[in-house]
Amino acid sequence: MDLDDLPTPALILDRARLARNTQAMTERVKALGVGLRPHMKTAKSADVAGLAVDGNFGGITVSTLNEAEYFLGHGITDITNAVCIVPAKLDQAAALIDRGADLKLITDNAGVAKAIAAHPGPRDGAFKVLAEIDCGEHRTGVVPESADLLDIAGTLAAAAKAEFAGVLTHAGHSYACRTEDDMAAVAEEERAGAVRAAERIAGAGIPCPTVSTGSTPCVMFARDVTGVTEVRPGVYMFGDLFQAGLGTRAIDEIAISVLATVMAHGRDRNQVYIDAGGLALSKDRATAALDDDCGYGLVCDAQTAEPIPGLRVASVHQEHGQVTGDGPLPFDDLPVGSKVRVLPNHVCMTAAAYDAYNVIDSDEGGGGTEVIATWGRCNGW
Ligand SMILES: Cc1ncc(COP(=O)(O)O)c(C=O)c1O
C-alpha cells in the first residue's frame, strides 16, 4: 500500500528518520558514559523500543503501569515507571513483578513509602523504589535537602518487601530554555540536585545505586554527568516542531507526521481546510512560546514531507484544520481530495490519538512512500 491509499487522518512514521534519531542518541549517551533508559511514553510501541534500546544498556522508562504491562508482554522486563506510584496501584505493580518484570517504582511521599513497606509485595522479591527529586521543575519530587528524602529512603531500606533503589529526577524546566547554554545550565542543576540527594542518602548509610536524570534537551546539551548512572530521554526518537525550535532535532529529522486530505477551499478568505483538526493533531500550541510559531503544525508535501513554504495549520475545530500561509495559498497545487502531511508541535500528544503507526522508510526506493509495516502502540491507562 502507498501513502496515497491510506484513509485519513493517519499517523505516519518514517523508520529511516527514527533509526537515525535513535542511533544518534545511543552514540551521544555512550559518549557521556552513562546508561540509556529511553522513555517510551512518547512512542508507546514495542517496535520503536526495539530501535531505541541498545542491547548494552537494557531497560526502558514508562509513564503508566499499562505501558509497563504492554512492554512486559513484548519481552522487555527492565522497566522504570517514572510517575509517582499510589497505594491503590501496588497490587497491579506486584502482579507485574510476579509475571517477571524487573519493575522500579518512584515516590516523593513518606506516607506512600510507608504504604509500600506495609504491602505484602510480590510473591518473590520486593518492590524496587526510587525517591523522586525536585531539581527545579516544581512538578513532583522532594528537594534534595528535605527531611522527607531520608525518611522515604530509610523506610524503604528497612522494609521486608521493598528495596530502596536510588534517586530519579526530571528537569522539565529545560523546556523553558531558549539557548544551548541555558539548557546546559538546567542539565547541571538537574545533575547536581540528583547527586546531592544521592550523597545525603549514602551519608546516612543507605546504599543509593541509581542516579537517574534526563529530558531530551538536558541529555543533548549536558556538559558533565559526573555521578549520574542513567538518563531517560524520550521525545528525541520522533522529534517535533518544539524540539526543532529548541535545537535538539532538526525539522528534517522529525519522524512523525499526520497524513491529511484537503477537504475544502475558502478562496475568498485564503484558507484551505484539511480533515485533520484538534483530535488528529492535538491542540498543543507549544511552538506559540517560540520565535517561530507553527500554529497547530507545519503543512508539508505528502510525498516528500518537505514543508510547503509558509503553510501552517492556523486554527482547528474537532475535525477541521484550517490552513493559512504567509501569502496567497497554492490552491491549484492543493485541490480538494489531494493529500498533505502535517508535522506536529508536540508529538507525544499527537501520537496519543492513534492506535498504530503507518511505517514508511524515506531511504527506500520509489520515493519511500510505500507503507511497509503497521506498528501498534498502547494507549490508555
Ligand atoms: C519523568 C520523566 N523522565 C523523562 C522524560 C523524557 O523527557 P523528554 O520528553 O524531554 O525526552 C519525561 C518527559 O516528560 C519525564 O516526565
What does this structure look like?
- The longest helix is centred in the middle third of the chain and has 24 residues, at 180-203.
- The strands form two sheets. Strands 2-9-8-7-6-5-4-3 form an eight-stranded parallel β-sheet.
- It has helices at residues 15-32, 46-52, 65-73, 90-98, 110-118, 147-158, 180-203, 216-221, 241-246, 278-281, 347-351, and strands spanning 10-14, 35-36, 60-62, 78-84, 102-107, 127-133, 162-169, 210-213, 230-231, 256-266, 271-274, 298-301, 307-316, 321-324, 339-343, 356-360, 373-376.
- The mean pLDDT is 96.
- Helix 5 (110-118) runs parallel beside helix 6.
- It folds into two domains: 3-11 and 255-376, Beta Barrel (Lyase, Ornithine Decarboxylase, Chain A, domain 1), CATH 2.40.37; 33-237, TIM Barrel (Alpha-Beta Barrel), CATH 3.20.20.10.
- By secondary structure, the chain is α/β, with parallel strands linked by helices.
- Pyridoxal-5'-phosphate is lined by residues 39, 82, 170, 214-216, 232-236.
Summarize the structure.
This protein is an alpha/beta fold. The protein folds into two domains: 3-11 and 255-376, D-serine dehydratase-like domain (Lyase, Ornithine Decarboxylase, Chain A, domain 1); 33-237, TIM Barrel.
Distance between the termini: 32 Å
Stretches with pLDDT under 50, minimum 5 residues: none
Q: Can you give the helix content as a percent range?
A: 25-40%
What is the CATH C-level name of the largest domain?
Answer: Alpha Beta
The main pleated sheet reads as:
8 strands, parallel
Sum up the overall morphology in one term: elongated
Quickly give the structural class. Answer: alpha/beta
CATH topology type of the largest domain? TIM Barrel
How many domains is the backbone divided into? 2
State the order of secondary-structure elements, H for helix, E for strand.
EHEHEHEHEHEHEHEHEHEEHEEEEHEE
Oligomer: single chain
Number of helices: 11
Number of DSSP E strands: 17
Mean pLDDT: 96
Radius of gyration, in angstroms, nearest whole number: 22 Å
Strand order of the largest sheet: 2-9-8-7-6-5-4-3
